[in-house]
Input
Amino acid sequence: MPVNLKGRSFLTLKDFSTEEIRYLLDLAHDLKAKKRAGIKGDLLAGRNIVLLFEKTSTRTRCAFEVAAYDEGANCTFLSNSQMGKKESLEDTAKVLGRFYDGIEFRGFKQSDVELLAKYSGVPVWNGLTDLYHPTQILADLLTIEEHVHKPLNKVKFVYAGDARNNMGNSLMIGAAKMGMEFVGLAPKALFPDPKLVAEMEEVAKTTGARITFTENIDDVKGADVIYTDVWVSMGEEDQFAERIELLEPYRVNAEMMKKTGNPDCIFLHCLPSFHDLETIVGRQIYDQFGLTEMEVSDEVFRSSASKVFDEAENRMHTIKAVMVATIGRQ
Ligand code: CP
Ligand code: NVA
Output
């Protein structure tokens, strides 16, 4: 059966089959080539979308806006709405559903993005919650396909760091769906919810994926991709001391890259990243804890193995694919 995602929300990759994710990746590759060829599109002409942000963003917000404009949609950025303050989420969703063809939401609770989808009656796209960051995973998979010259189901992927955050959860789901070998490298205290792991192990049985968690850095051996994310996610800013203590041994550095034994191993990071002292928060961490870099060394971040800016660009092509697939004209 041909894949048809019209009218669907994009709340977590758990809701999507391997074939549907494959379809979105293929569409993203095509849309990227189309943009490279300088072809202006109209696949979203006449569509209006709203971008609701409770948390800060650079990539996600800009990716939605540029993707919308490239294909002819109009968009509204909303970060100071009445929602949750003077108006319930249900009422806000019902209002936005009357104005817009699609709603992006970045916020805290996964249940909020689900309620928006339930009450708005239009496709809702999850631009990050505490639990999941599914549009990021599509960009990561697209980047792997561009730089690791193997099918996804032959790729060994290591996620080093906070394996129970939105990125750890979502990368495990994406890897399980696409039949990849996924290694979560983290201290036991930061392993993900065992219920989610068990659910993904069930998925893995059907896709051939392998999912393991380890505290041993030697298990990076043979990795095609090493991925990390910030040690402290948005909304957890009171946890720096505890996370640094747990995660310092898992910083991605040249030694870890070397331990893969794979000279072609690439480094990915969803960004933003604390790899130097060029940020206010980075300098505060330095003043408090004496660290000049956090989850990744500046050396690896700036190395030729690092594909983080291709990955950032791919947010736009993949988000465009999600919008075209769910609310597009064809
Ligand atoms: N990776 C990512 O979601 O970046 P932003 O927080 O800048 O949107
Ligand atoms: N885990 C990070 C991802 C940022 C894109 C956060 O939630 O802050």
